[in-house]
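task queued by scheduler; priority normal; single chain, no ligands, no partner chains; default sampling; output format set to structure tokens
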Amino acid sequence: MPTFSSAEKTKIICTTTTMKYFVQEVGGDKVDAISLVQPGVCPDHFDVRPSVISEVNAASLIVYHGIEPWLDDMIRASENRNVRKLFLPGPWGTPPLAIERINAIKNALIEVDPQNKEYYEKNAADISKELEELNQKILAEAEQLGVSNYKAIAMEWQTAFTNWIGLEIVDTYKSPETLSIQTVQNLVRIGKEEDVTFIIDNLQSGTSLGAQMAEEIGGRHIVFSNFPEAIPGTDTVSEMIQYNADQLFSSIKRLQNESEEIALLKSEISSISNQIVVFQGLSAILLIITIALGAILYNKNN
């Protein structure tokens, strides 16, 4: 494994922008982190190029999710037989899960570069504090908006976030290309029966199917991202988490405003209906009076 002096940066290979973000936050100016997979692409579909293999040759650590089938072949193709691997499986798109990754990366960096232990520990503590504050802020707004009152069908890669923010998940679905027509029909049926409000989609796995299901159910289609930098203004995991939360909150606010407008319209219609009833009643009374007066005049004249 390559060795580094205090003046050199430890080179870290990250399979995705998510892992690169975590490494950069903890490693700061002590590391040289690069990500392999573009943020809008599923890691499973990455094409390893010779230039990537050359990057691995000088790396001390590779951080990966476990959804990269090409990873071991890439390492074997390189000349770096002693590079360390840090496996960080499972979802990462909530503040508590992100903090877990931060701490795991901190420990890994200390192993490959122990002389900067205090530096890595401080950085990890700072970003963890920021994520804890974000966690409290978003969950407070979710409670205020009554997020738990809404039901959702979620793409499985976004179930952790959907659960964390408080939506009630009635069903989940896998990558669109793996779903049969019958499975999709069942999801639509469940969505209608359960009065589902939201179809939660994952940007990196495709969004057309979720949009179609939302239309058939009569619900709202919301797209979350799993990787920083995939959407402008989401350069960090914190920004990505806030972006996803804002998509849901904005949709709920629009829904609530529409409900208030509908309620107001119904009230106005009811008021107009009542006025019509009163008008009809008065018209009937006037008609009776007119007929009575006519009868009286007729009797007098005769």
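post-processing summary
- The first strand starts at residue 10 and ends at 14.
- The radius of gyration is 30 Å.
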